[in-house]
């Protein structure tokens, strides 16, 4: 039967081979006039600011604008059509209302707690721990202007040790969402998924990975996005084998034509060996890649100012109670 069908249809004709054109070489955009050092320094700091603290400040200030019956507040999950877990244990505002000068639309839910431990024998020594989360899709307008908008979710935690004049903190944050509004100040509106961990006081460490897209503002009047995956060690914890001039990992920025520019840093590893000499020298420099292609160009930003830009949120920020903001 198979042979019959083959003869009925006729033997397949031999097809001529088709010559394929070689792939076009990727165009490398001009980098004339770009200060990559200054751009990466600013990109690093702005990426670190995209944490839950940024969203929380806007949230707290928005709640402080509440008026009687605008918006409605709930303890736990209200019996409404909401994208919340049924066992949500926090607070929620949910409404579409216009107050005297403030409009609330959508919903925001949050949780927070803070605990401190000390002793009568040594009252100067104290442990403080706190956690908080924020989730929702809400918008707040004041006098017709967008004051604060958050669509997404995030959570962070803080651990503090205080002993006289010495102190130590560890902070971790994950934020995935879109932030907008005048309350954000110079950072403007942006969308991000960013994981940040840093510690300070008696020892400085830093880890950050994620991406950040600016809706309106630009870095160096050219770049609208940041992406990074880095680890960095402060001088207080560094040994002779560690490098504090540069992070381990990479930082990239994207221009408005969707071209990515990445700088890869390869400081020596923990045991002091150089796996790819001379690129792993601890010189504060990294190799520039454009559209994924190495350019043979070294970029040497000064990241010493990154540590000054880092700080732990105040423990008071984890003690948000509706009575403290005089919500009716």
Mean pLDDT rating:
85
- In DSSP terms, counting alpha (H) and pi (I) runs of 4 or more, how many helices? 4
**How would you spell out the order of helices and strands?**
HHHEEEEEEEEEEEEEH
Main β-sheet, spatial strand arrangement: 1-2-3-4-5-6-7-8-9-10-11-12-13
Shape: globular
**Beta-strand content estimate:** 35-45%
Distance between the termini: 85 Å
Radius of gyration: 26 Å
Helix content: 10-25%
Return residue spans where pLDDT drops below 50 for at least 5 consecutive residues. 1-8
Total strand segments = 13
**How would a textbook summarize the main sheet?**
13 strands, antiparallel
| SS content category | mainly beta
Task: Characterise the protein shown here.
By secondary structure, the protein is mostly beta strands. It contains 4 helices and 13 strands. Strands 1-2-3-4-5-6-7-8-9-10-11-12-13 form a 13-stranded antiparallel sheet, with helices on one face. The protein starts with a helix and ends in a 19-residue tail after the last helix. The N terminus is likely disordered.
Features:
328 residues, mainly beta, 13-stranded antiparallel sheet, disordered N terminus
Give a brief rundown of this model.
With 328 residues, this protein is mainly beta. The chain contains four helices and 13 strands. The protein has a 13-stranded antiparallel β-sheet with strand order 1-2-3-4-5-6-7-8-9-10-11-12-13, with helices on one face.
Which SSEs are present, and which pair or pack?
Elements: H1 2-9, H2 36-48, H3 52-63, E1 72-75, E2 91-98, E3 102-117, E4 125-142, E5 145-163, E6 166-180, E7 190-201, E8 205-214, E9 223-233, E10 248-255, E11 260-265, E12 286-290, E13 293-299, H4 305-309
Antiparallel strand pairs: 1-2, 2-3, 3-4, 4-5, 5-6, 6-7, 7-8, 8-9, 9-10, 10-11, 11-12, 12-13
